[in-house]
Specification:
It is a single chain. The protein is an alpha+beta fold. It is built from two helices and five strands, in the order βββββαα. The strands form two sheets. A three-stranded antiparallel sheet has the order 3-4-5, with helices on one face. A two-stranded antiparallel sheet has the order 1-2. Strand 4 and strand 5 form a beta hairpin. The longest helix is centred in the middle third of the chain and has 15 residues.
């Protein structure tokens, strides 16, 4: 989750995993995968930096099978 600021200076939290893209038009627009658009005071680069920092803190969230997991799965399917 990242905290961003509206133009009225109120802050809100966005689920960084739902961000599809960020545009500078010249104001910064965040478009979510749902199609919802958010207008924020941060620059596009600041939003990217917030997302990167969030991901660093969250750590790896994707499970990647090792070869031993793949071998066990293949054995189970036989």
């Amino acid at each position: 989750m990242i905290t961003v600021t509206r133009f009225d200076h109120s802050e809100f939290i966005v689920n960084a995993d739902l961000i599809e893209f960020v545009e500078s038009l010249p104001d910064t627009h965040i478009t979510l995968v749902t199609g919802k658009k958010l207008l924020v005071r941060q620059t596009a680069q600041q939003v990217v930096d917030l997302v990167l920092e969030y991901r660093r803190q969250a750590g790896p969230i994707l499970w990647r099978p090792t070869s031993s997991h793949t071998e066990r799965r293949e054995e189970a399917l036989e």
